[in-house]
Amino acid sequence: MDGAYSISTGIPFFDHMLHLFAKHGFFNLQIEAQGDIDVDYHHTVEDVGISLGKALREALSGYEGIQRYGQAMVPMDEALCLIAIDISGRPNLVWKAKIEGTIGTFDVEVIKEFFKGFVNEAKCTLHVNILYGENLHHKVEAIFKGFAKALRQAVTRDGRIKGALSTKGSL
Fold this sequence. Notes:
Layout: E1 5-8, H1 12-25, E2 29-32, H2 42-60, E3 69-76, E4 79-86, E5 92-96, E6 102-103, E7 106-107, H3 110-122, E8 125-132, H4 136-155
Parallel strand pairs: 1-2, 5-8
Antiparallel strand pairs: 3-4, 4-8, 6-7
Helix pairs in contact: 1-4, 2-3
């Protein structure tokens, strides 16, 4: 994969974050979402997270041969974000990211709903930590770039890994 994307959710800022995710994670991504964005962005953003999580879980089929763990520390100007992921079969989101307010008309609190939907469907553990930063756009962008890089590392195949990377033999 090379990070090619075609994304249309009707939410320009969210599309921008998904573009970053595809490009920085080298994920080919095609998304066309339609939702009740005239009401608010919550359901559409959450549904995209659910759909991406489900697609990942189906693509990994038993988590065989992947590195399983990934982490990234990403600076975005004055903001610094740490992301860690374990594709474990156990959904859990640890959210240490104080992001409040709006970017244009986009209420950034729904970003957490995107990641909740993703981890519940992907069946993975994800830690999102904004270590510091002032600019809201920079903090959110660092989250998506870090998520892309950590996920890319976790799903990378390693020929030394037979089955799932677990002493139990399965996840």
